[in-house]
Write a structure and sequence with these properties.
- This protein is an alpha/beta fold and 156 residues long.
- Helix content is 27%, strand content 19%.
- Strands 3, 4, 5, 6 and 7 form a five-stranded mixed β-sheet that branches.
- Helix 1 packs antiparallel against helix 3.
């Protein structure tokens, strides 16, 4: 099951996937996580952002290998910190997220103390992604220019 969470569904009608919209008026990644979890039929969902074009399947596999029923979140942690937009979330996260969004608090990591979190350290991720390019975000023209200078070895 693949869901696309967007506030512009008309742009994606030709795509062969299920399109869902945020259920809270706040525009932030946490509302996207909430909508994805709310609408999925699965007990857990892998959540990623649209601005990470180098995401490697092996990173997703590494996270899935660590998933156990007791975990509500399986999240990579690199030198830059937690990577909550490349993580697995349980539907059990819905209520804590709703409480946080109802208080108009958009910080993803703030609900983590209310759930069971398994952190996957950088050393565990490097076999799947030696240069950790799965966590490179392309948000600005400068980010795009920087990504264009990456070597083909970096992208492997």
């Amino acid at each position: 099951e693949v869901l696309l969470v967007t506030n512009n569904p008309l742009q994606y009608l030709s795509w062969d996937l299920t399109i869902v919209m945020d259920l809270f008026p706040i525009r932030c990644p946490l509302t996207g996580i909430h909508a994805g979890l709310f609408h999925t039929s699965a007990p857990h969902a892998f959540i990623t952002a649209c601005d990470t074009p180098f995401l490697k399947k092996d990173v997703i596999r590494a996270l899935l290998e660590e998933l156990e029923p007791k975990w509500d979140v399986v999240v990579p942690v690199t030198q830059e910190g937690s990577q909550p937009l490349c993580a697995i979330y349980s539907k059990r996260c819905i209520k804590p997220i709703e409480g946080q969004l109802s208080a108009e608090d958009a910080k993803i990591l703030k609900f983590y103390p209310k759930v069971k979190v398994k952190e996957i350290r950088e050393a565990q991720l490097r076999p799947a992604d030696p240069h950790l390019i799965s966590f490179v975000n392309i948000n600005t023209p400068e980010d795009l220019s920087a990504s264009e200078t990456m070597s083909s070895d970096d992208l492997k």
